[in-house]
Design brief:
heterodimer; A: alpha+beta; Alpha-Beta Plaits; DNA polymerase, domain 1; Dna Ligase, domain 1; 3 domains; 6-stranded antiparallel sheet; 5-stranded mixed sheet; 16 helices; about 40% helix; globular; B: mainly beta; Umud Fragment, subunit A; 7-stranded antiparallel sheet; 7 strands
Chain lengths: ~425, ~140
């Protein structure tokens, strides 16, 4: 008798992500975009990186260059937006902070998705998923879907299912779906659809007769480990229901870098957190430099442990960097914006930073070094003060000079206002 | 010398607005005994924003809410988490635009009113026919 009771309370994992995040963030402040095809373009207004369902229905492929879409935009009623990373970063921070209230165990996985540890009966879990969906939509203003299962891999699959099958109403609890339906889904979906299987590996899997997700689930984990890797073996085990994917400490997404870590000993002071954030700032700097990238927006977050459900705290802040940078000093200073939100005495088990709005290092890169040298003489601070008071481009260093700035090289013709981070760009409400 | 009085608006982080105000004028070389009791500046976030995740600041464009003391160019603090009630000042979505109105819920139906007789009421059969974006909790009126 004790076993079924225990089973009911086995911890499960909820995977929450925002539907077409960038397009949804735009719609939150511009309801006229609701129901219309919307694409959000990559840096320099290059190509479509987010498509609303209406845009997908038009047959616009992911990554389609804007110059190909532009001539037909009017005929389609297609709306394009430049990437507004400050807006997306702030909305992301709000979603993550809100999600933290539903679980003592939160893992921010990317700018628009997170894993939460959850417990309860199937009915309770479904109800929790629906509450999360409704509350994020109402409170923050963006739609999410929720997948709940025993492992991260299955939770991600459940979420994908919830997104693609309207019958779920946006929330899928894997174990509550009849086994025959789950099998049918896994038989139908090619192995590439599962989280953690890289495109280059699918051919090798196919050679072994592993074509569908169901095939992979039935594979021998040891054989998979020997022929592929421990990573692929974990995917197989997760499909079989054994949770074994740990939190990754460094993740590289399409347009973001994340550095996060769980601490062996909880951090209980702002001073301790300052050190950790400094380390991340330097790691991010090194990683950006390695890839020849600079970032313009940084998000810093921290979380309390799930072992201590009392005194929970999930602070998250989004900072617009003064310029695109890979400078460790600037990145670290930005990460320290989290410190005022750290409560002394609370036991933080985890912290991280995420950098977004990445672009290739411009050929004016020496400017960052140059400015860095002046840092010690407080010229950096002086520049910031002048810029804050008189606006961007009112003062500059050396050949960057007045009215330049690295941002100038970035084409963003269709940028919406930074509604939530700039006082002079607040959303307008009509009183008429 | 100098009186340290804000406002200073910081645009970074989750702080929608951080206004630093020292409670007393500070005279150099003349320590005020009252300062012994000063343990932190007034943080408007703390007093005006109940939930940082669901609160947005918007700016009013137009005169239809003058009667409620809300003028063109004023900023409103809007909480999306609140349940709109009869009498709430709400941001509603009308024809794809964010619009500010006073919500009236009566037995006969739901009405969006302007607080200015020059503007007509908008009637809908029930609350579910409306998209309410958020409920205004404060007006930052320019005096």
């Amino acid at each position: 008798m004790s076993k079924p009771a225990l089973m009911r309370h086995m911890p499960q994992i909820a995977h929450v992500d925002v539907n077409c995040f960038y397009a949804s963030a735009e719609r939150a402040f511009n309801p006229s975009l609701e129901g219309r095809p919307v694409v959000v373009l990559s840096n320099n207004d290059g190509c479509a990186v987010t498509r609303s369902p209406e845009a997908k229905a038009l047959g616009i492929p992911m990554g389609e260059p804007w110059f190909k879409l532009a001539p037909r935009a009017k005929e389609w009623g297609l709306v394009a937006r430049s990437s507004n990373y400050e807006l997306y970063g702030d909305i992301s921070a709000r979603v993550m902070e809100l999600l933290g209230r539903y679980s003592a165990w939160l893992e921010v996985y990317s700018i628009d998705e997170a894993f939460l540890g959850v417990k309860g009966t199937p009915e309770e879990l479904l109800a929790l998923g629906r509450t999360i969906k409704t509350t994020v939509r109402r409170n923050v203003g963006v739609p999410v879907c929720v997948g709940i299962a025993g492992t991260k891999t299955l939770a991600k699959l459940a979420n994908k299912w919830a997104k693609n099958n309207p019958a779920f109403g946006g929330v899928c609890h894997w174990d509550s779906v009849p086994a025959t339906d789950r099998e049918a889904l896994m038989r139908r979906l090619p192995v590439i659809e599962i989280w953690g299987v890289a495109t280059r590996l699918t051919k090798r899997l196919n050679v072994l007769g592993i074509r569908s997700i169901l095939d992979l689930q039935g594979a021998d984990p040891v054989m998979i480990r020997d022929r592929f890797s421990v990573v692929m073996m974990r995917t197989v085990l997760e499909l079989q229901g054994t949770a074994c994917i740990p939190m990754e400490e460094e993740r590289i997404g399409r347009d973001q870098l994340i550095f996060s870590r769980s601490f062996a000993t909880p951090i209980t002071t702002a001073a301790g957190m300052q050190q950790v954030l400094s380390v991340y700032g330097q790691q991010a700097s090194a990683r950006l430099a390695k890839h020849g990238l600079q970032a313009k927006v940084l998000t810093a977050f921290a979380a309390t442990s799930h072992y201590n459900p009392k005194d929970t705290s999930y602070p998250s802040v989004c900072v617009a960097l003064p310029m695109p940078t890979a400078d460790p000093v600037l990145l670290t200073r930005a990460a320290h914006a989290l410190l005022p939100h750290i409560h002394e005495g609370i036991r933080y088990a985890k912290a991280g930073i995420m950098v977004t709005d990445l672009r290739p290092t411009s050929n004016q890169a020496p400017l960052a070094t140059f400015e860095n040298q002046h840092e010690e003489r407080r010229i950096g601070t002086l520049l910031e003060d002048v810029t804050r008071r008189y606006g961007r481009g009112s003062i500059g260093l050396g050949h960057a000079g007045i009215k330049t700035g690295l941002d100038w090289t970035m084409k963003r013709d269709m940028l919406s206002p930074r509604y939530t981070t700039h006082w002079d760009e607040l959303p307008l409400v009509k009183a008429a | 010398m100098g009186v340290i009085i804000g406002p200073r608006v910081i645009d970074a982080g989750s702080s929608l607005l951080s206004v630093l105000i020292s409670p007393v004028p500070v005279a150099a070389g003349y320590p005020s005994p009252a300062q012994d009791y000063f343990d932190g500046r007034i943080d408007l976030n703390e007093h005006l924003i109940k939930d940082i995740t669901s609160t947005y600041v918007v700016r009013v464009s137009g005169e239809s809410m003058e009667g409620a003391g809300i003028s063109d160019g004023d900023e409103l603090i809007v909480n999306r988490a609140l349940e709109p009630k009869d009498g709430s000042v709400v941001v509603a979505v009308l024809d794809g635009e964010l619009t500010i109105k006073r919500l009236r819920i009566t037995g006969a139906g739901v009405v969006l009113q302007a607080d200015n007789p020059a503007y007509p009421d908008i009637r809908v059969p029930s609350l579910s026919d409306l998209v309410i974006w958020g409920v205004a909790t404060r007006c930052l009126h320019h005096v």
